[in-house]
Predict the 3D structure of the following.
Amino acid sequence: MLHNHSAHTSRETRAYLTSVPNRFEFIFTPKHGSWLNLLESFFGKLARTLLRGIRVASKQELRTRIELYLKEVNEEPAVFKWKYKLEALATESGALP
């Protein structure tokens, strides 16, 4: 899933995508999909604080490290106050019943 950032639709991106046909399916988020930026930020932070520069001996070790990170993050969750009404988003995007 992608938000509507220009880097995702640039000439360079489109040229690359034509070089690897059928490898990716792009789904663009609605304009009010700002909550997805929170997910992108979360995974970016995970990559910077946990994954950058590490070496693991197995997939299980990597999984264990990620699960420990998630456990520690969930011990003190950050509260996010949503500003949009679900009904308004459903009407605008047509995505929800």
